[in-house]
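I am still getting used to backbone structure tokens and would like to learn alongside you. Please make up or recall a protein chain and show it to me in full. Would you write everything just below, so we can both look at the same thing?
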Amino acid sequence: MRDQIERRFQAVELLAEAGGEGNERAIVGYAAVFNSRSEDLGGFVEVIQRGAFAGAQEGDVRALFNHDANMVLGRTKAGTLAVSEDEIGLRIRITPPDTQYARDLIHLIERGDVSQMSFGFRTILDSWDTVGEETVRTLKQVALYDVSPVTFPAYAATSVQMRAMMNVPEVPAGVRGATAPAFDEGQLRAQAAMRQREIEILTA
């Protein structure tokens, strides 16, 4: 699981605001919110711990629209994407290119048609716990790959977000047992595959 790239989507406010020189616009918001429970991800919910994105600003992170690599909005190495943690979550600021798709996206954000965000990551450190009848995964440290304004949300607390498993993880042995809910791994895989197909349709 730690070698797989996952995508998560949340629903937090995404805004377009006046930038610096040349009357350029900037896209700002949160790609992830700390300590906010995700929707059911196929037998478990997920929480992001504060500090999970420490060092992300030192990596090479891209900003894309709907995770489409043909619609690049910014990049940390180019100085056109800034990511940082604050008390709320992972804050992003994108200086988009002067392209038609970027101008269209800004217009959609200003109209309120696009208002959520997603992020792609690889897990470095997580934990699994049983809380009541729920299995809760806590992301403690992740490697951030991309952030993306998206059309549809699912993590009920980000700015431009929606989340879904892009790869189907093996269920960790630690969540099995008498105190953990029963897992039907075939069902988990089928649900995740269905989510993947839905994402591909939505972003095609």
In short: The chain has one domain: 5-203. The longest strand covers residues 134-150. Strands lie at 5-10, 14-18, 25-33, 45-48, 62-65, 68-75, 81-85, 89-94, 116-131, 134-150. The first helix runs from residue 100 to 111.
